[in-house]
């Protein structure tokens, strides 16, 4: 059994598959129990050196130890079944979730960080969501009056940070990016993320926090043309749907697309639930680049999707209406 603060491992025999994790203030009561600090943890089970199961748990809350015993205790008991290669909740047959928090597992414990020093400068964590998309996880911004929402900022490669999404949750999956690992790839790039929190003040107005820490991951970039570098001539030979500009926008933005030949084009806007909002294009178009304006003056702020269909080509992108 080694110290997990440095990314170590907790080893058990196949006959000792029951683990109990104690919060950081508790006394080490039993010789084979591990006391650890508040943090975001990944636990991995290996059998004969092969990874069988893993889970992530966010233990970053200053509501401990005050409400530790409110609902019957704050410890989490987990069983690893060697034969099944799975983590289970205690001695039940319920599989332990891959991504969870102490406040999800013990609802009487709040997601509060008011008493954690320098928390926001270290709040943001990026992990693989299991489908090779970036999963952003953070703890609650330390505000006395709660949180209205969080702003997620993103940049690719050497570009500029732009407001990418808004959420009231403490986690977000960026399904538009694919994480890569291992050897370098010719078309790889890096995605960067950071946050701000928007919170109410005593004067019934909203304030915006400083930025969180920045996290990053290697992601797949645009496919490269075989045998040559990107060129204008190659661009003319393929379909393209470009990111709207400006983005974020209010109330209007311009969407540009390119056609290599004559095609019947439909370009529609949807809300985040997939409901159609507007049809911007629905006609035969000549080859070349085309632009269309989308006016969202009658819509609520938030994330929307725009999708093009031209022959067998289809592509969807996101836009952000900021009000």
Description of the structure:
The protein is mainly β and 323 residues long. The chain folds into three domains: 4-105, no CATH class; 120-220, Sandwich (Immunoglobulin-like), CATH 2.60.40; 232-321, Immunoglobulin-like. Helix content is 3%, strand content 43%. It has two helices and 22 strands. It has helices at 102-105, 232-236, and strands spanning 18-22, 34-35, 40-47, 50-58, 76-81, 86-89, 99-101, 125-128, 134-137, 149-156, 162-167, 171-173, 188-200, 206-208, 215-220, 240-241, 252-259, 263-271, 276-285, 288-295, 302-310, 313-321. The strands form six sheets. Strands 10, 11, 13, 14 and 15 form a five-stranded antiparallel sheet that branches. The chain has a four-stranded mixed sheet with strand order 2-1-5-6, with no helix packed on it. A four-stranded antiparallel sheet has the order 19-18-21-22, with no helix packed on it. Strand 13 and strand 14 (206-208) form a beta hairpin. The longest helix has 5 residues, at 232-236. It is globular, with a radius of gyration of 24 Å. It starts with 17 loop residues before the first strand and ends with a strand.
């Amino acid at each position: 059994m080694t110290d997990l603060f440095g990314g170590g491992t907790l080893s058990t025999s196949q006959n000792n598959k029951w683990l109990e994790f104690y919060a950081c203030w508790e006394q080490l009561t039993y010789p084979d129990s591990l006391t650890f600090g508040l943090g975001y943890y990944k636990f991995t089970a290996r059998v004969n050196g092969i990874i069988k199961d893993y889970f992530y748990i966010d233990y970053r809350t200053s509501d401990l130890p005050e409400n530790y015993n409110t609902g019957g205790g704050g410890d989490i008991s987990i069983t690893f079944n060697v034969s099944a290669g799975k983590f289970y909740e205690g001695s039940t047959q319920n599989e332990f979730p891959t991504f969870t928090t102490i406040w999800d597992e013990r609802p009487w414990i709040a997601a509060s960080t008011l008493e954690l020093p320098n928390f926001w400068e270290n709040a943001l964590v990026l992990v693989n969501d299991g489908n090779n998309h970036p999963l952003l996880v953070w703890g609650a911004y330390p505000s006395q009056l709660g949180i209205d929402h969080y702003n997620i900022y993103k940049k690719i490669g050497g570009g500029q940070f732009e407001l990418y999404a808004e959420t009231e949750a403490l986690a977000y999956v960026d399904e538009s990016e694919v994480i890569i690992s291992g050897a370098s790839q010719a078309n790889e790039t890096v995605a960067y993320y950071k946050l701000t929190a928007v919170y109410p003040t005593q004067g019934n107005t909203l304030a915006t926090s400083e930025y969180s820490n920045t996290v990053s991951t290697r992601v797949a970039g645009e496919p490269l043309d075989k045998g040559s570098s990107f060129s204008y001539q190659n661009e003319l030979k393929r379909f393209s749907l470009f990111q709207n500009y400006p983005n974020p926008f209010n109330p209007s933005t311009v969407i540009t697309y390119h056609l290599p030949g004559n095609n019947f084009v439909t370009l529609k806007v949807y809300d985040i639930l997939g409901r159609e909002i507007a049809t911007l294009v629905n006609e035969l178009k000549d080859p070349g680049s085309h632009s269309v304006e989308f006016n969202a003056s009658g819509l609520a702020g938030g994330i929307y999707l725009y999708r093009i269909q031209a022959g067998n080509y289809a592509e969807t992108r996101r836009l952000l209406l900021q009000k």
